Model the fold of this input.
Amino acid sequence: MSEPASNSLGEAIDMHVHIVGNGLGGSGCWLKVGAAHRPLAAFMLRHIGVPEGLKSERFDAAYVERLLELVGGSSLSSAVILAHEEVYDMSGRQMGEAGAMYVPNDYVLRLAREHREFLPAVSIHPARLDAMDELERCLEAGAVMMKCLPNCQNIDCSDERLRPFWSRMAAAGLPLLAHTGGEHTLPVISPQYADPRTFRLPLECGVKVIAAHCATKSGLTDPEYIEAFFQMLKEHPNLFGDTSAFNVPLRGRHARRCLQPEIASRLVHGSDFPVPVYGHWAFLWRTISWRDYRRVQAIPNVLERDYQLKRAMGFGPEHFTRIGSLLRKRV
Done:
């Protein structure tokens, strides 16, 4: 067993890496892929180099093995791996078949204990009846961050009933990585919660909130929230953003504005693995040169390709190490 990662301030860290599993190997995960998403799922697995199919008993292990290979062959020292909560209503009742995937907290906590390359981010719906107990358990087990998708997991972060949960997170120094902007990989339950302005309550409670994707739109018809995000950066010193999925068609078109010093100093690096990484979009948006496009697109390691594309865009070394000062330290 490897020693746990220390999340040192000087290390390059990918802080937005998804774990996916079907549970057939005992991970506790589950995954439901509808007919409309099966071609995309198969494409993503080919893109990251996972040889096993979604229904294979070895899929969960093969996914982790491939991720370890990619981190080890990259400029990164470690990756924050994300659990994925089930869907609840705001009264704390589980919403049955509403979700499309589940990755237990115990699974990512165990993977992080076993592999020094991994840091664990848990996922807890704060309206769960046992949410506070689960939060304490995960803190004791070494969680460094919490991840949620409010629009997909039906979380109204501004609900006053959640104040004790956010206050406990703030006191523990546990940051929140929360999805913002459109979402087209998972089913959306409450689209209004993609707006970063719904995070005002946790911010007021003192939680360090990281707005995934900087509130950019994913699909053509999605609302655009990036101006609201930029305004909130001025109002809340504990708000940050990540550049995950900036190498898909639409999100990265704002990269130039994100390089402005007052904004760049509040951004951290994430890939959104296993989301595909292509240099075409950065070149088309004129954020990298043709020479850089040719050089970086030839890199087979998708984590390294994402890292090098962002370096070519102009993000400095601190962009990749800043998250070390935000993550809760391992116990």
